[in-house]
Prior knowledge:
Blueprint: H1 3-18, H2 22-34, H3 36-58, H4 62-67, H5 69-92, H6 107-118, H7 121-134, H8 142-173, H9 177-197
Helix pairs in contact: 1-7, 1-8, 2-3, 2-6, 2-8, 2-9, 3-6, 3-7, 3-8, 5-6, 5-9
Amino acid sequence: MTLTSSFALFTAMIALxxxxxxxxxxxxSRTLSLGLKQGLVTVMGILAADFIFILxxxxxxxxxxxxxxxxxxxxxxxxxAYLIWxxxxxxxxxxxxxxxxxEINHSGSFxxxxxxxxxxxxxxxxxxxxxxxxxxxxxxxxxxxxxxFLIAILAIGGVTAGYAYLATKTKLKLKTTKQIKYGSGGLxxxxxxxxxxxx
Length: 199
């Protein structure tokens, strides 16, 4: 990979991450409802899914990706249903702050980020169609794959972590538990609906 292609890919990934999609909505809602730490774990789930797509593209597994097309559709709808269910569950809890679900483990947040990105047509399209425009996938070495991972961490991870930080600042301005639970629950439902309806 050349410095020019690395910079072009970095710029494209930042643009992709800045556009608020279902992944951003999930990061914000997890942060609002469970705190910055859980929001950052959600970012790690998003990055894990991006790494899967990078590896699929890097090893020219386009045939496998085509074969798994229906599997990705299933993941998309399961992920959408999961996010909507989380939003409804959050809104349905008591207004008492002690009853807002505070997940001790990080698996729920990680899974939310992972499933949202795996089922996101925008991410699939980017890695299947646009990534080869920036780099010659046939000439990739292992060090190049490492560089692409690093670019994804800096661009996508950096932007989505920034959204999580901004959500934390917003949460401090919200006066009541009801505002937090309805806001984050609505974002979950919105992210799930966005994911389900997006082609």
